[in-house]
């Protein structure tokens, strides 16, 4: 029996067996970003039917397996919270340390509301720095005011 | 008896009583960013002696209370995790949904290591958009490779 | 020192001491709904400056206390989850039992996205029924598609 | 060995393999609502013997597998709480933010008691809106007063 | 400022200071059971206005404090779960050990539904036994079938 | 390899496959109650050697599988706490709401001690009621005073 | 307002202020063991009226405070679990490591049942040992067989 | 692939299949105690090479499986905490109720330190008693003073 | 009423008010290490009577407050686990990432046992490094073999 | 399908089957430390391509399995926190007891910042001692000051 978990596990297994990279796969899937495509392949976003067919070709998935990649996954189901991995934990730490600060400043600027995590996009880039290169992250989410009713 | 919690509570109480804004206070404290100063006043970072003296003047703190603002706080101690506030929760959700994706792409680009949350800076800005303004966040953290030993 | 928690506690204490009802207070605050005003007084939403002044008058709050009612609260901070109160728990139970069903049907109808809890409104009404009156709840939240990027 | 979990997993797997939709399946099962039938197929409610036989036909289940669909499931056993999926989480957030408000207003209207989650029905519909369509949810639960004894 | 917690604490303090018993207080409050009245005084149920006035007289409460006893409390808020007290824990243990058994037999007898904890009554009595007296508990809750919709 | 979990899973699977009921099986096992036998088959109590042999005959278990039914199980290991199933949760809710009341009244009647959950018996019956039949539960546990030493 | 917590805190405060020892206090309270009396003073057991009066005399408690010492406390309410203190944690560790072993051997010797923690007594003594003195603990609890019903 | 968990599961399965007892197996393994040997077979302690070879003979294990019994296990990994089984839970309850008492009395007698759970031994015996036999447990652990440095 | 928590809070408050450093205080207390003295003042270890008298002099404590510093504290009671503070969290992370490695190598070198955290000492020093100074930590704990019995 | 978990399990299984030691394997892998290589084989660090090839030869892994050893693992995913194993728990206890002390002294010496757990190295050695050999641990992590921005 297939499930999204089984398909995600196969994606990972095939990626390593074939010696592929996320960026390499992403470049072939379509015009979306590395982030979006990697998230979809890791079971956290969706591919279009065409993108899924392409992914199946690259990773040796069956047509039925590919179909699962086009369905909304149970987002976050496999996340370990608090994260145990140091790379992921640092983001968690930022929330713990700066969450109330972000809230204070966003509300002061925009009013009572939130930054959407759905109407949202982001990018990750290398920022060259003589003291050691830096990870540069840019996020942009629509401000949503609480509706008064 | 004083403690950082008592001082932080007084800061908040005085800010509202005096009708001040975080940005307004920050502009007077020194050359640091809004984010840094707001974090320090919320008990998540430190001020220099001069900045603390200035803050005391603005908020009506005693000299002893100001001294607490220059000491490393117990960072994150007051954070509610998972966050219950929708604004802060959305950042938590981003980690739950995209954490493994960030890890995959940062490691692919930089190798085995992490983005520092200590040698780190960030900014929050308003991004005008006809479909609704957006919250634009830029983060930059030094890449730290795991030391082999 | 004041805080939103202190103000919320005073609101509750004064409401009982003065023998007021939520609907009675709400009717005098302005044109918003009972739900919105009750939420604000319980520390889960904001009032406008005018509404807060009116609330202060009704409940005997000081001007400084009223000011706290106009500030974005730390939403959800006082919620007990899982809820221990049977009335609130039943809603939690509905999520536990039907959450995956709601997800399946909303995604089938709207695509990959969510119902906003921010651009959201709701009402609660009595529904007369010979077998016992019913609580009728109507919710409406904007559908937000996950942005592809 | 069969169990409700195994049967639910097969239902999901077959639904995707056959390219079916929940509404499509529901329309053939009987006169119940989409919600009820989807919940039952996801292991959160029961089907009648006739409905189960019909489901077996549509999804290629054995007679023994179909029998499991007629038995009261261990409701909620597979729910992730707090929900990690954004769509489901928003409902959880509504409880965190408005739970005490709902309690205050329902008790003010009905007295000491609860809204039943058992003698309960609901519907989900699309609400057309020029600013973006909305998810419209209607719930109705019998009010149950606490019995005095 | 008053709250239900403050009133409950005063009830307990006064009960001990005055050397009263729960049954003794209950006998004077009205025609309800010991269980109902004790629960109300411990902050888990409500008294009528008359009962609350009587309780205030017995325990030396103010009129305002008495009013809190007539309001629906935040049920269960002070419960420690899992219970640390051996007497209360034994009931928790019964659920852990026999919960699935109760479910199996109630569903077999009544169909898909639950025993109400709202339309519910119970009693606790001493059962004389030569091998050591026993605690005899009788519970009765209305069976509520899941509504099909 | 066999374990109690494997045997319990087979019991459930065979019961459904053979279309049996708990009461039907219990009636054939011996003179014990429905509750005791169902608990044992669900992995929460023990059967005698004779009862286990009978159960094996009814459910098609091997002799080795039957032997596991005579061994003290890891009680409660499979319980979900807090229970997610509404039927089981209602009992949990009763403890949350009335636990301190039960403690207060049992101690007032019996002194410092507990109701045993081991020297314990119970029954579940249908109580006919024109307003809807009720689930009637009778429990009896030996009172155990704390030994002074 | 008094409560058992307030009285326990005063007991501790007075014990230190007066430079007393638990064994010293226990020796004057009556014929019970050090363990029982220390537990009662720490809010985990009860004293008789006479013992409480004696304790009040030694520790400077009021008559009303003494009365609280004769009432069944909310046992275990102040325990930190898992214990953070190394001395207490070691006992927790013994359960984690040997709990299943104790269960296996007690059931093999006594049958299906438990060791009572209520009809229970224990002692702690110093065991001289040339390689370093040892803490010697003796426990004795009545075996309670699960009642068949 | 083998692991300690797989070997432990096989030990249990074979013990039941062969109708053996823990004491019976222990008597053949060597001069250690029942407790030590049972703990080792349950995956909580180690056997010597000779003892493991003997265990393999008795339980039909392969040489490779036997080798796992000589390796330090991940102690406590399979423990359920808080214990759900009544027999094991009673020990947990003793810590919850008496932990602070044990700490108070051990420190008063021995000074600042702990009872070792490593340089530790214990025994479990039947204590005949006309009012019902008792489980008698004797523990002895070396007192370890906190090293000053 | 005094307690160790109250005394620890006063120590911190006085330290800041008087502008003292931990090392400065430690240097005057006696011949113990900075670590030991700081731990004792933070409520995690004990001082001798003489050291406590000295501390009282430096920090302006009363004689009764000083006495609390000589009593074994409830170690770890105030620790936040998992640590939210980045400095403390990094140690937690080391356990998460390397705990099984430490176990593997210590057992391979020493046999079945542990490193004592009681017969234990440590030091923290600055290690000059051209690429940035390092925190150098040296720990030493007695190896304790599991006693066979 | 392969995954890091499957490969780690095979490494452990093969190590026991072949009678190897961690130090023995490490000595053949390259010039890194025992700690680093053991961590990598336990799924907590990475090997170079050459080291992985060598590991595959020693442990009988396939080329595809070896490739997994060169990829950044999900660090900490398999850790049990709080640790149940006494050896690993002692390190956890050190943080609980001394974490705030470490923070106080490191900040006093270095300023506002942390000890890196990434630019980090450590060693474990046997320290001969007539009173019993000791485990000697040396850690060194780069001090990272919080960047002001």
Automatic annotation (TrEMBL), chains A, B, C, D, E, F, G, H, I, J:
InterPro entries in alphabetical order: Cyanase, Cyanate_lyase_C, Cyanate_lyase_C_sf, CYNS_N, Lambda_DNA-bd_dom_sf
Pfam families membership: Cyanate_lyase, CYNS_N
One term of GO molecular function: cyanate hydratase activity
UniProt family annotation: Belongs to the cyanase family.
Domain of life from the UniProt record: Bacteria
Protein name per Swiss-Prot or TrEMBL: Cyanate hydratase
Active site: 90, 93, 116
CDD domains: Cyanase_C
Keyword Metal-binding: no
This enzyme's EC code(s): 4.2.1.104
Keyword Ubl conjugation included in the entry's annotation: no
HAMAP family reported for this sequence: Cyanate_hydrat
Coiled-coil residue spans: none
Keywords, in A-Z order: Lyase
